[in-house]
Structure formats: C-alpha cells, structure tokens
Specification:
- Helix content is 28%, strand content 23%.
- The protein has a single domain, classed as Maf protein.
- By secondary structure, it is α/β, with parallel strands linked by helices.
- Strands 2-1-3-4-5-6-7 form a 7-stranded mixed beta sheet.
- The protein has 5 helices and 7 strands; from the N terminus they run βαβαβαββββαα.
Length: 205
C-alpha cells in the first residue's frame, strides 16, 4: 500500500529487527534521524506501555502528520531482583555503560541464586500514532532465565545472558529468524501488524 513508518529509535540492532519483521507490510521503516526529527523525548512513564506512548506521541507531534509513527519501550525484568532493571534497562548503570558491564553486574548480583529462581522475561510495548491521530498499543513478553555467563554473538543488549530453556540457548545464540519468531519485540510487532491490518493501513497477512 506504500507509505512510511517512522520508528522512534536510533538503536541500529533494534531497527534491523523491526525492518525484518515489518518487511511484508509494504511500508518503508525509517528512524527518527532518517526522517529528520530531532525532538527530545522525556521518558517519564512508570510502565513500558506509558513510555512507548510518550515516545510515539512526541515524535508524531514533531513529524509531518503523514506518517505512521511507532515507538517501543522494552526491557529485562528479573524476578529475583524485584523486577530490575525493568523500564530502566537501557539506562541501567548509566546510559553509556557498555552492556558487557551491565550483563556482568546482573550475573554477579545473582551469584548463588539457583536456576529455578533466576526467572526473567523480556517485555516489549509498542505504540503507534496513525496519521488520523488514532493510537494503538500492543505488548508481549518472552520468558526465560538469567544465565551464568555471556553466550552468543548475535543480538544486542542483554541477549547474551538471557537463556531460553526450550531452545537451550541464549537469545544471542539464536539465529535472526529464530529470535524474531519468539522474541518479545517480534511478538509485539506481529500484534501491531494485525492491528494495522484491522484498521486498513496495511494488507499483508
């Protein structure tokens, strides 16, 4: 059907995943930077859903009004740490702190915690603001455990320490196709595709 989705992110790994999952929509997926939008976003929500909506609304207000604007807020929720890092996943230990440092810190904090109590999940909320002002929101999760060491070279962020028992691998050891099929972001994007189809913005299956 043509058209464009402006996604409120500058994360290259995330953009690659999103483009792969949405490639059958017929819509071009571009980043804020590619769309020429440089607005500042204040993520002051208390849930993934609230932050996703804040991002999408802010970018939509700064855009042309002709694009579908999407934003996601996602993160890692570790049960034994009271839900940390949660909505602060990207800012955990500081926004510019390498994920190798963040991952090592989480593993160290879980020292001595047995397998059955290392449960965790990746959560993703995706919000969309349509050209007519209508707002859509989808949320999904993938369940797993925190591993004892970093494993795998694929993915990004916390993927090397997020172990998926059904696959016997971390999400950084999965292929792109496997990860997109089961990941929190993949599930949420497919739900969003269904919502866009229901509102007649796309006609893919």
């Amino acid at each position: 059907m043509g058209g464009r989705i402006v996604f409120a992110t500058g994360n290259a790994g995330k953009v690659k995943e999103i483009q792969m999952i949405l490639e059958d929509t017929g819509l071009q997926v571009v980043t804020m930077k590619e769309a020429g939008i440089a607005t500042k976003i204040e993520e002051n929500g208390t849930t993934f859903a609230q932050n996703a909506l804040i991002k999408a609304r802010t970018v939509a207000a700064a855009g042309t009004g002709q694009d579908i604007v999407m934003a996601d807020d996602s993160g890692l929720v570790v049960d034994a740490l009271g839900g940390e890092p949660g909505i602060y996943s990207a800012r955990y230990l500081g926004e510019d702190t390498p994920y190798a440092v963040k991952n090592r810190n989480l593993i160290e904090r879980l020292a001595g915690v047995p397998d059955e109590r290392r449960t965790a999940r990746f959560v993703c909320a995706i919000a969309a603001v349509l050209p007519d002002g209508k707002e859509l929101l989808c949320e999904a999760a993938i369940e797993g455990r925190i591993g004892y060491e970093e494993r795998g070279d694929h993915g990004f962020g916390y993927d090397p320490i997020f172990y998926v028992p059904e696959y016997g691998k971390t999400t950084a050891e999965l292929t792109e196709e496997e990860k997109n099929r089961i990941s929190h972001r993949g599930k949420a994007l497919r739900l969003m595709k269904e919502e866009l189809r229901r509102h007649a913005y796309i006609d893919c299956k």
